[in-house]
Amino acid sequence: MNLLDLEVSTLQGDTTTLGALTGGKAALVVNVASKCGLTPQYTGLEHLHSEREDLVVVGVPCNQFKGQEPGSAEEIAEFCSATYGVTFPMLAKTDVNGPDRSALFEALTAAPDADGVAGDVQWNFEKWLLSPQGEVVARFRPLVDPTDPAIASAVDALGA
Prior knowledge:
Elements lengths: L6 E3 L5 E3 H5 L3 E7 L8 H11 L3 E7 L11 H12 L18 H6 L18 E4 L5 E5 L8 H10 L2
Parallel strand pairs: 3-4
Antiparallel strand pairs: 1-2, 3-5, 5-6
């Protein structure tokens, strides 16, 4: 199955596809949390989303890492908008690991990182770069900041 055809639920409760959210552009899918030490990465993610015409950031809230995303959909949306000015699409709170892992993360976690390691999401703010065709082309672990040149280089290499 092409990831772009995958049905997803938005933070607002709408059902759509990943392809409809990305509109033919490359996508950086990121599991996010509001109460994490890495939460300031929202600033860099919003910058990428607003400054790069060839990239859509897709945030995926997850509460599986020490309960760092405890809020309701409304609370998450308000926090992201008011605190970080987030304008990129956000999905509904999602399980990224374990028996209830979403189909999206079932596919994403099969992709290896730069060291060739695939498997479970390690922590909040892990990132996957998808080509405009929906292929996973890169995986960045949580400590890779959205402003890291490796992310921009990977997006540039797509030639989108």
